[in-house]
Design goal:
The chain has helices spanning 9-21, 25-38, 43-50, 54-67, and strands at 87-94, 101-108. The protein is α+β, with helices and mostly antiparallel strands. A hairpin with a 6-residue loop joins strand 1 (87-94) and strand 2.
Length: 109
C-alpha cells in the first residue's frame, strides 16, 4: 500500500518536467517512480521496474514527503570521496641552473 498524499497540479507538472529533462539519472528515476506511484502503480511493480529494493522505494517516498522536490536529489556527502585529504603539488628544484633536479612533494592544507 502506498501512502503518498495527493499533490497539486503545479507540483505534478514540475515533477513531470524533472523526469523529462533532469541531467541526473537518479533524479529522473526517482521522479518517474513517484509519478507512477501517484498513478496507482503497486510497490511490487515499482521494485521490478527500477530494480531496487523495497526499502529504497520507501526511502524515496519518505524523502518526497519530507523534502518534496529537494528530496529527489542526492544529499551532500553522498558518492565517492576524493583520494587523500590533502592536495599534492610537485615542484622541481634546480641545482646550479641545470634542468635536472630534486623533486619535492609539498602538501597544501
Amino acid at each position: 500500500m502506498i501512502f503518498l498524499r495527493a499533490i497539486n497540479p503545479v507540483s505534478a507538472k514540475l515533477l513531470e518536467r524533472i523526469y523529462r529533462s533532469s541531467k541526473h539519472h537518479q533524479v529522473r528515476q526517482r521522479a518517474q517512480c513517484l509519478i507512477l506511484a501517484l498513478q496507482g502503480v503497486k510497490v511490487e511493480e515499482l521494485i521490478k521496474t527500477f530494480q531496487v529494493s523495497c526499502k529504497t522505494v520507501y526511502n524515496w517516498f519518505e524523502r518526497w514527503e519530507s523534502e518534496v522536490m529537494v528530496g529527489l536529489y542526492n544529499q551532500k556527502g553522498q558518492g565517492r570521496k576524493p583520494r587523500g585529504s590533502a592536495r599534492k603539488t610537485v615542484t622541481r628544484c634546480g641545482i646550479g641552473g641545470s634542468r635536472s633536479g630534486v623533486i619535492e612533494e609539498n602538501r597544501a592544507n
